[in-house]
Amino acid sequence: xxxxxxxxxxxxxxxxxxxxxxxxERKRSLGSRLVILGHHYQKDDVIQFADFTGDSLKLAxxxxxxxxxxxxxxxxxxxxxxxxxxxxGKDVTVILPDLSAGCSMADMAEIDQVEDAWEFIVxxxxxxxxxxxxxNSTATIKAFCGEHDGACCTSxxxxxxxxxxxxxxxxxxxxxxxxxxRNTAYALGIPLEQMAVYDPSQPGGGLTSEQVRDSRVIxxxxxxxxxxxxxxxxxxxIRRTDPDCKILVHPECPWEVVQQADMAGSxxxxxxxxxxxxxxxxxxxxxxxxxxxxxxxAYPDRPIRSLAGIQCLCTTMYRIDLRHLLWTLDELVxxxxxNQIKVDxxxxxxxxxxxxxxxxxxSPQPMGIK
Length: 370
Ligand code: 13P
Ligand code: SF4
Fold this sequence. Notes:
The protein is an alpha/beta fold. The chain contains 15 helices and 13 strands. The model has no long low-confidence stretch (mean pLDDT 96). 1,3-dihydroxyacetonephosphate binds next to helix 3.
């Protein structure tokens, strides 16, 4: 995680109302030079200032389209700002309001570990999979996939990207989220017995050469600390107490949860599904709490609750707040850039290959995997 220096003391004294007024004023003064992008897991007080909101795929595409703006302030997490930085032209500066807004899942695959795994799988086991990385990964991992004829995917297009990968070769290594990889491969008809989990803390990932050769999908042992809080017991409880309630989950949830759910897909898919449902439809939703609460308020005629009884909160998304947003805008108005996200040009060149292979293989609508 990157270090975010403390903000000047004056920001601590401001009320929410003062900060909101000031942000509006800075937005007005920067005009079309500034675009604010916001991920669906952001807090309401922050997302109200986003010019565009979206899931990871939509935001990546929107980032690529912002050729006229000078600054993109990305209200999301570090890997998203990195993708925007790589997909926009050199003249666009991408800013993350709080540098400590990382993603614990992205940190679960480090480049040295992935290179060791590749050496073991290719040299010792004698097979060459297509490397696919979820966009929730560092630019270096995306570059690794780009260099080795692989691609990125998001939870909106994982199915299409895996279909593409299996047309290239008969085996895939999926980084860093084992759950998205397992859920998507299973939805494509690959049985669990043909999937192996590579544990980077073990020599050879804890796998034998036979296990690697017998698998069609090698899953990296990574996970989202928010979505693993959803459990099959919660689904059973909904089925028992409210049989008409539909269960809709994000595919970062464990396979056992996705199996019990009625539908699974990205945040954009979740929003679209609820929006298009008939009034009166009851929903139990397995994803980050800010999105669930936003849907609950947006559709009062469709009873909505979190699948979990506990608050499943992404603490890193939560770090982006009014204070940090205002500070970055104040600095821009004063002619200074803070918290610029930069990617090494060679890493960027290779990572763009994997992002472009993804963007070439996706449909315009978010696809559910179930
Ligand atoms: P999507 O918004 O692409 O569904 O991803 C969810 C997520 O966990 C982002 O980190
Ligand atoms: Fe990362 Fe999970 Fe937070 Fe998404 S919800 S940013 S995967 S920790």
